[in-house]
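Hi support team,

I'm opening this ticket because the web form for multi-chain structure prediction keeps timing out on my end. I have pasted the exact lines I submitted so you can reproduce it. The total is 248 residues across two entries, so I didn't expect it to be a heavy job. Is there a limit I'm missing, or should I split the entries? Thanks in advance, R.K.
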Amino acid sequence: MRTRIHLIAPALLIGALALVSCSKSSTSTTAQSDQANATAVTVSHIDLGRNVDGDQRVTDQTHEFKPNETIYASVLTNGNAPNTEIKARWTYQDGQVVDESSQTIAPQGAAATEFHISKPDGWPAGTYKVEVFVNGSSAGSEQFEVKRTS
Amino acid sequence: MGLFKKNDAKEGQRPPDFSNVRSGGSSSAPGTPPGSDPESAAPGTHARMYTVVKGDSLFKIAKKEYGHESAWHRIFDANRDQIEDPDLIYPGQHLRIP
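Hello R.K., no limit was hit. The queue was backed up. Here is the completed structure from your submission:
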């Protein structure tokens, strides 16, 4: 009798501990999986060009534009996040902000987000820059030129 | 007579006007912006820019952009980071027009 009690008590204790650890681990596994799914969205590349395809990727890449052209910037990102703000700020060589707009994206892996600008009376010649921000933090920029047609 | 018109010298000194720039965008992974109701959309989500010139006021800019002066507070609210006093704006300031 004494022997059985001696064996049962530890067994019960071990079993109880196992149940607690399982429940803890299942909770932590769920929490960890949620965290694992959300990874920081990073910008891998910014492409400039005269047009984009159906996947929001630039076609006809260039860094030189004519005054009457629409300018496209395709921002390629990696990462998973339910809500990420991508902002593009376009500036002229004298520091003027030409345009600023943002989009909310929910990428799961590689994604492409395009921004474009146009000016009915034509772009002034000069050097421009487009800077991209992810959730308010600068994530890269690209310069380009507008040149008058000869 | 010179080769250039009188105004050209003044025109050359003025910074370019980007107030009529049009913009847009799309994504392969669109999300739902928080507060998708346009009334609650954060200023600057899709804003045009206006460069202040001499003689401008928020009243005048609102009249030009919205057709009525009473909309001046929309411009003020969208540019709180650079306008402390709505009666004080300066040539060269770049204001967001929501």
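A quick check on our side: The first helix of chain A runs from residue 2 to 37. Let us know if the file doesn't open in your viewer.
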